[in-house]
UniProtKB/TrEMBL annotation, chain A:
Name of the protein this chain belongs to: Uncharacterized protein
Lineage top rank: taxon: Bacteria
From TrEMBL, chain B:
Pfam families: DUF3592
Originating organism: Haloferula luteola
Source superkingdom: Bacteria
Lineage: Bacteria, Pseudomonadati, Verrucomicrobiota, Verrucomicrobiia, Verrucomicrobiales
Domain DUF3592 positions: 231-315
Keyword vocabulary terms for this entry: Membrane, Transmembrane, Transmembrane helix
Keyword Membrane set for record: yes
TM ranges: 12-38, 149-174, 195-214, 315-340, 379-399, 411-437
Protein name: DUF3592 domain-containing protein
Length: 136, 561
């Protein structure tokens, strides 16, 4: 088994956070020659079936460094049913995953937490049917 | 991460378990029918493998015996030669006995007799001889029997496939639920369409095609019957025919009559284009009593085939079967439209922005509430009709048994929850029907696409409906939606992450029309639209009216980053 520092990896500049609309830089580390591409993508997590969208690709044809411009949305968030996670994936020339790392894309630097409204008032209307008049 | 990755619920696992049990039961039940059809098919195929040998028809007599059942008996005798030896055969079909063939339709036997005579005159009448036993032979292979048997096998096969599909889908769902609980994250690049919708699309396509093929001949005959000729006839005999089945005894009217067409006498006992039997002997006996031997009546004769005649040319049954075929085929078309890519929610955001650009000011007057109510009523009607139609068959069986003094208690107890659901669905139809008349409102949004922190004007006005509302409220609502597979069906869960009441009034004038400003919170999450996961924002208008279903109309706002 290879030592941890010899395994292929993705490293991000700075604190590894991303700001919507900002620039994300980093580099891949591994045995040369470095080839393949780095993919920036987000995926949904939670109760719903997972959806994935690859936002951008950076071919590693001129070195190990990559640069992405992050889109304005979606940001990393978690809700009761739905959440979004961002990640970078290094794939080789045959499309096989070599390394992966997650990142948080958020204007505040932290994943956005969506609250849950326990008993929405507008939903109560649905069950109201008073044959002899409304009450309350 | 603070939220729960891969969370599943006990209800999800229990639902998958129920799906497995249901699927296995369904498959076992339909396999019984499949086995019966296969046995019949084997019998049909067996004779078709026999040797076709020229033969000579010596006798073909049809006797009517009203005291027997079936009342018409055909006796045939034909001779054929195999390897220099002559043999005599007396069997008409492979399913006939060696002495005679019985049928409850006189015209069917006449048709076979005339066809045999025709072929004999043309010099190519053949019989089918068992290659293993030259003494065993049949004169006729039932025309169309192979096709009917194959169609029936295909039809039953669809139902068996549904059972297998439900079982497999439920097992896969149970496995994926366990994987989620263990924390595994699945990533799928291609987005797959609903598997369940594909299954329904294929099943309804096959069922619809089989249905149409099975009934196309009957529909054609019903159309042709409009040109049949009314001809005087005379009753030879009449009786009430009893048929015993697992559901009990049913009765039908059997009238054997003669008529003359273009100088030639014919006989028939065909009363309608499609024969049927039902419970209740008294009404059938009354009709038989009204047609004693010798009674003068009228019949409708096919001028192209004078041996075909009926007493009544009713088409109600054909209409019902045609309506069922249309419903099945429409369902199939709807499923294929969804599978092959009808409009999805993913396009809604783009359409909203396109509308905004096209209209310039981005104004939209929305009064889709009436269309939504009609859609809800239609769905409720179809669901209640389908459910209660199915359940009524079994309720009818239980009712007949109870009336006959032999109640089936287990069946009656088993039906209670199904009848309860049927009554609930009927209630839903009533509620949706009343909702059509609830007050209707149109909402105008100055902009339908906003950024966090931006605001827009919202105007509402009453556009129709009856009743005096008691209260009107408007909210800004943010909602999560997650779509997932549960067993073989697709389910969408919804949770509200933001709700702000913008307006509430009980003043009638203010309820009739008004205007307010909707502001998206500065930190509000932009809308998200993926095939299975969504964040959506709505302006929600809620109206409570005494003695009517509450109105809750949603108007989507696209929040862009």
């Amino acid at each position: 088994m290879k030592p941890a520092n010899d395994r292929p990896s993705l490293e991000l500049d700075g604190d590894g956070m991303g700001v919507p609309g900002g620039v994300l830089k980093g580099a891949v580390r591994g045995e040369s020659p470095i080839h393949g591409e780095v993919r920036l993508f987000w995926s949904t997590v939670g109760r719903g079936t997972t959806d994935v969208e690859v936002v951008a690709r950076w071919p590693l044809t001129q070195g190990s460094h990559f640069t992405f411009v992050l889109p304005a949305a979606p940001v990393s968030f978690s809700g009761t049913l739905v959440g979004v996670e961002w990640a970078l994936e290094w794939v080789d020339g045959k499309g096989r995953a070599v390394a992966e790392c997650g990142l948080v894309v958020s204007p505040t630097g932290c994943r956005v937490e969506l609250p849950k409204v326990e008993k929405p008032a507008h939903k109560k209307l649905k069950t109201i049917f008073h044959p002899f008049g409304t009450q309350g | 991460m603070s939220w729960k990755r891969g969370r599943t619920t006990k209800a999800t696992s229990a639902g998958a378990g129920c799906g497995v049990v249901f699927g296995l039961g369904w498959t076992a039940f339909t396999l019984v029918f499949a086995v019966l059809v296969l046995q019949h098919l084997r019998k049909v195929m067996e004779v078709r493998g026999w040797d076709e040998v020229p033969c000579q028809l010596e006798r073909f007599e049809i006797h009517d015996e009203p005291d027997d059942d079936p009342p018409f008996r055909a006796e045939v005798e034909f001779v054929y030669q195999v390897e220099g030896r002559w043999h005599r055969g007396t069997r008409l079909f492979s399913t006939s006995s060696s002495e005679s063939t019985r049928d409850d339709k006189y015209s069917d036997l006449v048709e076979i007799r005339e066809l045999a005579k025709e072929r004999q005159e043309a010099g190519h009448l053949n019989c089918w001889v068992n290659p293993s036993d030259a003494d065993e032979a049949v004169l006729a292979v039932e025309e169309g029997e192979l096709g009917r048997a194959l169609l029936m096998l295909l039809f039953v096969g669809v139902f068996v496939s549904i059972g297998v599909g439900v079982t497999v889908a439920s097992i896969l769902a149970m496995r994926s639920n366990r994987a989620r609980t263990a924390g595994a994250v699945r990533r799928k690049s291609p987005v797959r369409k609903d598997r369940g919708v594909r299954v329904v699309a294929w099943a309804t396509s096959v069922i619809g095609i089989v249905w149409v093929i099975s009934f196309s001949g009957k529909w054609q005959e019903a159309l042709n019957a409009r040109s049949w000729v009314k001809t005087p006839a005379e009753v030879i005999w009449s009786r009430v025919r009893e048929q015993d089945s697992d559901d009990g005894t049913t009765y039908s009217v059997d009238i054997f009559y003669r008529y003359t067409y273009e100088g030639q006498e014919y006989r028939s006992n065909r009363r309608r284009l499609i024969s049927s039997s039902s419970s209740g002997r008294a009404s059938k006996q009354a009709e038989v009593d009204a047609h004693p031997p010798g009674q003068a009546i009228s019949c409708w004769v096919d001028p192209g085939h004078p041996d075909r005649a009926v007493l009544e040319r009713g088409w109600v049954f054909h209409g019902v079967m045609a309506a069922v075929a249309v419903a099945i085929l429409l369902t199939s078309m709807g499923c294929w439209w969804r599978v092959l890519g009808g409009p999805s929610d993913g396009d809604a955001s783009r359409r909203l922005r396109e509308n905004e650009n096209r209209k310039g000011l981005g104004r939209e007057v929305r009064d889709g509430s009436l269309r939504r109510r009609w859609t809800s009523l239609t769905v409720a009607l179809l669901t209640a009709g389908f459910w209660n139609g199915l359940v009524s068959v079994f309720v009818g069986v239980a009712w007949k048994a109870w009336k006959g003094g032999n109640p089936e208690w287990f069946l009656m107890l088993f039906l209670i929850p199904f009848v309860g659901i049927g009554i609930f669905l009927l209630g839903a139809v009533v509620v949706q029907g009343v909702a059509l008349f609830s007050p209707r409102y149109g909402v105008e949004l100055e902009k339908v696409s906003l950024r966090p922190g931006e605001d827009t004007a919202l105007q509402w006005m009453r556009t129709g409906g009856v009743g005096t509302p008691r209260r009107l409220r408007i909210w800004l609502v943010g909602r999560e939606e997650a779509t997932y597979q549960r067993g073989s069906s697709t389910t969408t869960a919804r949770e509200t992450f933001f709700e702000q009441e913008l307006f509430a009034t009980e003043a009638p004038l203010r309820m009739r029309e008004g205007r307010l400003t909707v502001t998206i919170p500065a930190g509000g999450m932009p809308s998200l639209r993926t095939p299975h996961n969504k964040l959506r924002w709505f302006a929600v208008l809620g109206v409570e009216t005494p003695r009517m279903p509450a109105v809750l109309d949603e108007y989507e706002i696209d929040v862009v980053p």
